[in-house]
Amino acid sequence: MKGRILSGIQPTGNFHIGNYFGALNQWVQLQNDYECLFCVVDLHAITTNYDPRKLLQHTREVAAAYIAAGIDEKKCIIFPQSAVASHAELGWIFSCMTPLGWLNRMTQFKEKAGKNKEKASLGLYSYPVLMAADILAYKATHVPVGEDQKQHLELCRDIAGAFNRFVKDEYFTLPEPLIQKHGARIMSLRDGTAKMSKSDPSEGSRINLKDSDEEIMQKIRKAKTDMNLFPDTFEDAKGRFEVKNLITIYALMTNQDPQSVCSQFSGGNFAPFKKALTDAIVERIAPIRNEFNRLMQDKEALDIILENGAHKAREIADVTKTQVFEYLGLYR
Ligand code: TYM
Question: Does the global pTM surpass 0.90?
Answer without folding.
Answer: yes
